[in-house]
Amino acid sequence: MIKQLSVFLENRPGRLANLLDILERHKIKVLAMGIAEAGNYGIVRLIVDKEGEALDVLRGCNMAVNETNVIIINLNDLTSTVKILGNANINIDYAYTMDCQRVVLKVNNEVEAVKALSASGIKVLSARPD
Questions:
Q1: Dihedral sign, CA of 115, 116, 121, 123?
Q2: Lesser CB count within 10 Å: N end or C end of the chain?
Q3: Is the pTM of this model over 0.85?
Q4: 78/65 same-domain check
Q5: How many domains does the chain have?
Q6: Which helix (H) or strand (E) holds 30?
């Protein structure tokens, strides 16, 4: 499983820049990012190259952050993936693209999702380029 960090930020100019600056100063590379707006706050979802270090650094900066498991698939497999997961009664809570070739999926049961996809020939990827 890949760990995703979710950072809760005030929806104000400069907050995202501050978050990214902190990661850059600690040489933590952002591999994927999605943002969801929720009124006065936003949720920034990140896949980074050093999950544990990023979690410690952000918490040390008094940022509200948590981690969750996600899966990553090839964008070319998206249609098949959503059909397989739907047939296995696995819900996709949200998704965002990682790059022009990969998609990050948050599902309600990662273990069963990986089993269902693997059984159908869909490869679940690592966040790092192979």
A1: negative
A2: C
A3: yes
A4: no
A5: 2
A6: strand 30-38
Pair (81, 59) in one structural domain: no
Q: Side chain identity at 127, as an amino acid letter? A: A
Question: What's the chain's average pLDDT?
Answer: 93
Q: Is residue 125 in a domain?
A: no
Q: How far apart are CA 44 and CA 4, in angstroms?
A: 10
Q: Which tokens is 10 given? A: 């005030």
Instruction: Give me Rg for the CA atoms of the chain.
Output: 15
Q: pLDDT tens digit string along 46-99?
A: 999 999 999 999 999 999 999 999 999 999 999 999 999 999 999 999 999 998
To which residue do tokens 């100019």 refer? 13
